Amino acid sequence: MTTPNNTGEIVFEAVDLKINAVRDDKSELPIVKGVSFKVRRGEVVALIGESGSGKTTISLSALGYCKPGLKFAGGEARLLGQDLTPLSVNELRPIRGEKVAYLAQSAAATFNPSILINEQVTEAPVLHGSKTRAEADKKALALYHALELPDPETIGERYPHQVSGGQLQRLMAAMALCGDPDLLVLDEPTTALDVTTQIEVLKAFKQVIQEEGAAAIYVTHDLAVVAQVADHIVVLYNGEVKEAGPTETIINHPQHPYTRRLMDAIKPLPEAGQGETTSDDHLRDAPAIEVRNVDAGYGRISNGKPAIQVLRDINISIERGKTVGVIGESGCGKSTLARVIAGLLPPSGGSMLLDGEMLAPGIDERSKDELRRVQFVYQMADTALNPRHRIREILGRPVEFYEQATGSAIQTRVDELLELVELPLQFADRYPHELSGGQKQRVNLARALAARPEVVLCDEVTSALDTIVGANVLELLKRLRRETGVSFVFISHDLSTVASFADEIVVLYAGRVAEQGPTDRVLSPPYHPYTRLLISSVPETRTGWLEDTANSREAQSSVQAGVQLTAKGCPFHNRCPRVIAGVCAEQDPPRRVAGGHVIECHLELADLGGQS
Amino acid sequence: MSTDSPADQAHYVAPYDDGVSFDELPDSTPGGKFRLSFTGWVGTIVVVFWLFIAVFGPFIAPYDENDLPFPDAYSEFQEPQAGALLGTDVMDRDVLSRIMFGAGRTMGISFVATVLAYFIGVVLGIGAAVSSPKVDMVMSRINDAFLSLPSIMLGLVVVAAVGSSIPVLIVTAGVIYASVIFRLSRALGMEIKVMDFVEAARVRGEGRWWIIRREIWPNAAMPLMTDFGLRLIYVILFISSLSFLGLGVQPPQADWGSMVRENLGALQYGTSIIPVIAPAIAIATLTVAINLIVDDVSAHSGGKLSNRL
After folding, report:
1. The sheet that has A349-354: what strands, in order across it?
2. What is the mean pLDDT of residues B255-281?
């Protein structure tokens, strides 16, 4: 058992650590190039950098682990004074899970779906023999309480699929902490979570690390998150430490150009007046696309209703050259909306108009020209680009298909498209895997633009990218919108991104529109209670924000309840801090409209403004 | 990456004039080439050797496959000696010459049968994957029925009914193995069909045939090629087994499987066991060598981490 009073003791120390990748011809490529840092007891050190910076590789060295194809090439990784790099698997076994524990990004992939949670949480210490089963159970229970899990007495008796994503993430922390480790390695533990859930998880992590007196290495690419949990920050780029120091210093006075760039790429908090003014040059009589009273869902349709209804009564109208941002938590139906507009999922009710004319519901019924005018950009460029096609074929095919172009005409257009998305022309002869993530996403966009579309549906196009890369792709989108007059439907779970890009915002909750209107109106009072929760959950890049928010937040209880798609009443009622008993759960919320701004809530508009 | 010239990389376009740029890293360097490992080279050399024998064996063999090297001193299973380097078989024919004649026959029949199996299996399998669920259901159940029959038994029945000839052998082996390949290519097709890039092609309005040819096939080809090598081995063994049972290549024509059967007596009565061992070794070296190459190819297409750096 660790005692919190001997703080200052060095728990983990990397000394000039070098890790190389071994190529097939036995030549070695340095991945980590001499990294040194210390983690003291009771301290959280954040490793920050983009993908490929070696941050995960370095953090795994604290477990004495190298991914296949990598090897320790020099330096030391000292845990409690002992160098782990020369140890064999058998020598490492008593250390792992007992002295050092690892928390992966995805809790869903970490838990075995067919074993009870409690059994998995207590497995390591019981296996190591450091605790008896009773002791381990007691420790687990204490951790469930400390992590503020609902029903701590019984949650261990459930299976992993029976708890929510945020709860599972916290249970994974319990699993790691159950053996009283000296060092905790957390690899992007909140990246896959919604902002509202992220707050709860961060708060629980921070608190439990303090109480247990453990040391932690926190790997992430998100500076705002780091500002909340870390005491020290190590900025990594390309396997080297670019800057290291106390959190306050790095956040407020970044020295290295790379750190400054990271800081600049942080999106400002969502507020009114951030979106750039889009030109009205491209406007025509009819909106580019109009969605009227659309219902949609999955499964067999009976009585005009699908078995699982996902969207209800959606109305959106997008003018030419304008952007509508769709925002909501995972599972709220925002991707489904994009699929409905693209024709991949015909709606079960309602209609869609393209440039004032009726648009057929499914792709099989749409004409080639209708298909051309609505283009879909997928979230993951990795799976959206055929890995066996060169970029030339990927971009050339839509040109050939829609314009019946041949030979040199295709060639010219491909070059034009590459220029449009700011990629070198010689990339045309490469395969997708020879490009970086951001470059692939640009190709993904260029393919949609190759069709000369009128509407482009962007499904989380910047979400999988690193901060700086994502910011650049967003700049590109803004330029394209100005130059081409294309209308965008921009789907994201990140309110900051949407706020800086969209002319109009649609806030979806459980398949219904909670609030909708011009960006500046949605981001200023009056707010729907859910919109306010979303806005207040976006992390600020300053230390102490987490405590301020967690303490002052009106909706502390809100995250505990799951999202439900209700047949009647307001779907948000079980999480709403201002719920009216007997009304919200029973009656559909009235639609309150004021000058193009819609809020669906039982409360009067006058009651929804002001204080937060 | 170090191999890229600076102009190759898209730089962060941001209003910085400090002269520093930070490149993004691609998943792999352009033009990562396929390289054979040591065992891969051994396999290649052996396969090339057998291919050479298969093509030129009949011309360079010391005797015809049915000639007797020692017509004046007839005796079965003679030991290796000058004039018959691997000795003689049950009918006093030269074992070395028969192996050289048999190489082309065994490998040729197996290769053509495997190609046939692939043609049938892949066309129907990918066809089933992209068809409506009902059509897929019917095709898959019929295929299951085929799969449930033991392949050697099925082969025996067909050959016994129709009579043995090389075309019959090829068609029989081709159809029997097509059902396995149907399974494989259907599964592959199903997996690729739900990828985003296939959906992107559907949203573009591409026809079914184009999607199969240009989106699904290039991605299915590599795993199928890997399997081709393995399947070829099974077919070689299958043809050899049929020959061993006397239903494959008919005497007096030589083929490795039938040679093992003809000379089985050597194990019991012969003065030399080489007539049995030599064709068996030929089958073994060829199949193992193909396997060694397949291992390398599949490791390459599997994308090892070190390959991606």
Report:
1. A305-318, A289-302, A349-354, A357-359
2. 85
Which residue, among B21, B306, B307, B308, would best test binding to A if mutated, counting the most A CBs under 10 Å from its CB? B306
B257: exposed, middle or buried (Cβ count in 10 Å: 0-12, 13-18, 19+): buried
Condensed to tens digits (0 to 9), the pLDDT of residues B183-211 reads 999 999 998 888 889 999 988 888 888 99
Is B305 close to A386, i.e. CB distance below 8 A?
A: no
Structure tokens belonging to residue A355: 């440039």
Sheet containing A100-103: which strands, arranged edge to edge?
A: A100-103, A183-187, A215-220, A44-48, A232-237, A240-246
Q: Look at A436 and B25 and tell me if their CB atoms are within 8 Å.
A: yes
Structure tokens at A70: 């990598």
How many angstroms separate the CA atoms of A107 and A97, rounded? 16
Q: For residue A469, what is the nearest residue in chain B, using CA coordinates? A: B12
The answer to whether A437 and B24 are in contact (CB under 8 A) is: yes
**Inter-residue contact A589 to A601 (CB < 8 Å):** yes
The sheet carrying A82-83 orders its strands as: A28-40, A10-22, A70-79, A82-83
- Length of chain B measured in residues: 309
Give A212-221 pLDDT, tens digit per residue. 778 899 998 8
CB within 8 Å: A434 and B219: no
- Select from B30, B200, B206 the Cβ nearest to the Cβ of A376: B200
What angle in degrees, to the nearest 10, is found between the helix axes of B217-244 and B166-193?
150
Q: Do B29 and A434 touch (CB under 8 A)?
A: yes
DSSP output for A302-366: ETTEEEEEEEEEEEEEE-TT-EEEEE--TTSSHHHHHHHHHTSS--SEEEEEETTEEE-SSGGGS
B29, B36, B203: which to substitute to probe chain A, counting the most A Cβ within 10 Å? B203
- Are the C-beta atoms of A423 and A443 separated by less than 8 Å? yes
Q: Can you tell me whether residue B70 is helix, strand or coil?
A: coil
Backbone angles phi, psi at A234, to 5 degrees: -115, 115
Helix (H, G, I), strand (E, B) or coil at A70: strand
The ranges of chain A with pLDDT < 50 are 1-5, 555, 557-558, 610-612
B262 vs B89: CA distance, rounded Å = 8
Q: Which of A248, A187, A249 is nearest to A54 (CA)?
A: A187
Is B24 within 8 Å of A469 when comparing Cβ atoms? yes
Return the domain boundaries, chain B: 37-54+88-308
- Mapping DSSP to helix (H, G, I), strand (E, B) and coil, where does residue B129 land? helix
- pTM comes to 0.77
Three-state SS at A28: strand
C-beta of residue A286 within 8 angstroms of C-beta of residue A266: no
Query: Which amino acid makes up residue B20?
Result: V
Rounded distance, CA A586 to CA A583, Å? 5
Q: How far apart are CA A360 and CA B206, in angstroms?
A: 17
- Give contacts of B308 with chain A, Cβ < 8 Å: 433
For residue B188, give both structure tokens: 């592959």
The domain made up of B37-54+88-308 is a member of CATH 2.40.160.20: no
Chain A hits for B16, Cβ within 8 Å: 257, 261
Host H or E run for residue A200 = helix A195-212
- Whether A261 sits inside 8 A of B16 (CB atoms) is yes
Q: What is the ipTM of this complex?
A: 0.76
Q: Which helix (H) or strand (E) holds A243?
A: strand A240-246
Q: What is the reported pLDDT for A261?
A: 81
Query: Which of B2-16, B18-32, B293-307 has the highest mean predicted lDDT (pLDDT)?
Result: B293-307
Give one word for B266, left, alpha or beta, with left for phi > 0 and alpha for psi -120 to 50: alpha
Amino acid at the residue B186 = R
CA distance B192 to A322: 35
